[in-house]
Amino acid sequence: MSFFFEVLLGGVLSGVMYSLIAIGFVLIYKASGVFNFAQGSMVLFAALTFVSLLERHVPFWLAFVATLLVMLLLALLIERLVLRHLLHRSPMTLFMATLGLSYVIEGGAQALWGAQVHGLDLGIADEPFTLAGLMLSQFDLFAAAIALSLVIVLSLLFNRTRVGLSLRAVADDPLAALAIGIRLQRMWVLVWAVAGFVGLVAGLLWGARLGVQFSLSLIVLKALPVLIIGGFTSIAGAIVGGLIIGASEKLAEVYVGPILGGGIENWFPYVLALLFLLIRPAGLFGEAAIERV
Amino acid sequence: MFYLESGQFSTSYRQDQRIFRLWQARLALVLLLAAAYTVVPWLGSDYLFSAILIPFLVLSLAGVGLNLLTGYAGQLSLGSAAFMAVGAFATYNFLLRLPGLPLLDGFLLGGLSAVPVGLVFGLPSLRIKGFYLLVSTLAAQFFIEWLFTQVPWFANNSSSGVISAPALVILGHHFNTPRGSYLLTLSIVLPLVLLAKNLVRGQLGRNWMAVRDMDTAAAVIGIPITRTKLLAFAISSFLLGIAGALWAFTYLGTVEPHGFDLNLSFQILFIIIIGGMGSILGNFLGAAFIVLLPILLSIISSAWLGDWIQAGQLENLQKILFGCLIIVFLIKEPEGLAKLWNTLRARAHGWPLSYWN
Amino acid sequence: MFYHGLKKRGAVALGLILALGAALPAHAAANQQYFPLQSYRVGPYAAGGTGFFGGFIDYMQYVNLKDGGVNGVKLVWSECETEYVVEKGVECYERLKKGLNGAPAAATNPLSVGIAYATLERSTADKLPLITINHGRTDSTDGSVFPYVFPLQLNPYSEVSAIINYIGQQSGGLDKLKGKKIVTLYHGSPYGKETSPILSLLAKKYGFQLTLIEVPHPGNEQQSQWLTIRQIHPDWVILRGWGVMTPVALKTAQKTGFPANHIIGNIWSNSEDDVIPAGSAAKGYISITTHPSGTQFPVLQGIKKYVIDSGKGNLADPKRFGNVYYNLGVVNGILNVEAVRLAQARFGHKPLSGEQVRWGFEHLKFDDQRLKQVGAYGLLQPLKLSCSDHEGGGSVRFQQWDGSKWKVISAWVQADRALLRPIIEASSHQYAKEHGITPRDCAKES
Lengths: 293, 357, 446
Prior knowledge:
Number of helices of chain C: 15
Strand order of the largest sheet of chain A: 1-2
Helix content of chain A: over 70%
Helix content of chain C: 40-55%
Number of domains of chain A: 1
Shape of chain A: globular
Distance between the termini of chain C: 73 Å
Strand content of chain C: 5-15%
Largest sheet of chain C: 8 strands, mixed
Oligomer: heterotrimer
Largest sheet of chain A: 2 strands, antiparallel
Distance between the termini of chain A: 54 Å
Number of helices of chain A: 11
Largest interface: A-B, 48 and 46 residues
Structural class of chain A: mainly alpha
Shape of chain C: globular
Number of strands of chain C: 14
């Protein structure tokens, strides 16, 4: 029985890592209505920049701040060169533009920093320790703590500050927001920069887990089912969705996997999300779409 | 001056409904087909056939398949490579286990096998719209990849899971050479594209476009939404299945399940974005673009830039260029290369007068 | 407005014509042997590609600088990026197989299972040797059915057989394997699955309990697999990884408390680039290698003197000189050049066709004396290829990661080739039957 709880707990903590990526998506979708497929590449780019600075003997905190500035610059460029010209286009067009953007950022990251694999040591040894007979991982708990604090900070940002109010207004109706004097461009730069920051945090945690290399950008494929279940517009939903996906994925792999031959982790979250959608098309916490003719 | 419509009138409905209404267009088509069947096989090199023409044709067919689903019927799909995989593996198994089955029938059966798979993963489209539909097709993509890797029966129990092309023989003629494969691919792709073109010009195509534009309104005026959407998935999967079989047998020669991965789905999606969604010609233009651009870049760089750019950096630059081109296309010409082509044609109507239209 | 567009289009057309014109060969070069390189320097497996091709190119550069080529025939090469994608590999093959400026192609070395499978029949039809060092299609070891394919040094079956033999050695004898538990964690791809039947066979023969666990590509998440492993409590875990799967496996093993010194990695999980990202989790991890890493071998010292120190080295990061992938490239270079040398001895000191170089490969022989002459004693294992045996070696050494470098911890461990041969032959004869190939009679050929 304790094995079951170990798998469950391990899955839940893994799920928190997925949520970190999903939060980046939610931020951008919430504030600009764009489903940002380039989030994975942004995570890769942030992690690569950070690690390359570390390897050039830049101290940890300085490298962190420098990478943040780079992500801010990236957000500025994206807003200026891409988003501004795609105002009022259909969501599909915007999605495909982010697809193109992901190629640009991926190619740019590799062109700039090279294609080698880098190790990333955040100073937390990953030895397991036992709590109440269950084996837990120090690193996963640390990541969960970071994710939780991130969620609290972002929720406060969106719900308790003027800036957050402006962001929500922009997401609701850009034209109306323009009409009352909200600076659209500035809001977009801000939200993409915050998404970049979230991407950096996610990149550091995932990079410490996998090593910083190309496959980091593939994590985004795990974040999609999380978003479906949690809803595209809710940060709390991203966490809950992450927990559900992480737990169910691991439990399915361990218990259902051997029957089917193993390796079902890749498609199981998607099938689960699909079944979920058939029952609740907008996700757990998402906003239902209203269609009018 | 050469492309004038004046003086060409239709005197019957049948004449009016032709795909190519001007005699100039029909003449150009005949010349193009003649060249494709006679001049190209005679003068072309192995490299031209194996690395340029065959992938161009196969990707065009795949683009047509996806375009019917995404461009005409508006159902966004990232699972195209999965349907291609189903077609490829099904064709392989039919040809392997039914000895004496003619090759073309094998392709046909392969395409038909992809239809139920498309229907199953297309059922959610009845309830889910827009981005969320991506999940269903991505589920298809990952599940099919897993299924073919997992069940060794599909690959005839070979330990590596790789299937290789059987001898391509029709009525005693061998088509395994690059030239033969090219002719075979051409002869399969053209009728299928004609089929697709006629479909989109008919009632079904109009139904698809109505569903794409606003399916609630389409339902209001009496278009059967369920049937329309499912037919889109079915026909699209059929074409993608045959494209997959061609991809495995006439292009690569061998294929493993991971050869039909998400990257291929993205490639086909890019073809229809760049070529133009909602257009049949656009798929050819998009496929030509996707096939030729990397090769052109590689040749230019090795000829002109030599050692300035390492091979790896070139690949990165190509990726960046690619992404930029997609963004530029979406900003400047969201209707893709097909729109540019139509603009060119419209200008040609009045040439040499600049302000004809 | 229209004419402006016409000018733009004209410029594009002109550019295209110029580009195509530039692609035509400028002049025919005499007395050169060409090696087309379907390399990959970007993408998820770039570490392996940059190391391998770096070593290969540096070795050819060394041969050119030190000896002026092979008996006066200079070696030339050109790269075509495949990003480890099969379609690109095929396109590169078709583009480069004809040669470079008149220099004929000697052999192709794609270092990719997918590309090797896709170009296998083309290579045979075009009479160009396909070299798949340390990997490839196991049944291509039987040269009577696959005359143009060479899985040099080690094929996948030999890998696992050698690992089992080593585990037997560590347990005090192969008979002591009875009742032990061995888990094989493999990459969910044809490469990963290829050896599962052999492992099951060996499990039946020696009586150990085998569990096969798959990690879906690319292997970013292995929590559930390692928790299952913890449940099983195996004595050893064999890791058949590739790319990111290896460091993630090591880190997850640490997370679930499985000791790294009971994990044995196969030939594609054995490089510095695989263990460095895992940090402290990789300490004690064992893997197999057909060649040690390190720079003390005379051939590497020679490369350092002639190529690296004069600034002509191919590696972007000079610290990788002498690591596992780089040395694999050097070894590959030694084998390719030796094949050309042997073929030249028979066919004349001139640029050779693929068919002639094939003869050279088939008669590759490296005994201790020849190894010392080439400066690779201790780097390469003794090899002897023949018409029926395109592998030629089948031995590995075991190395352990101590946190900063690999240390060799065993002598050469031979695979049980007598056991494997009938299986390989059964598979190759089935291939021959399916494709209507008549196997060559190796007894009759010289």
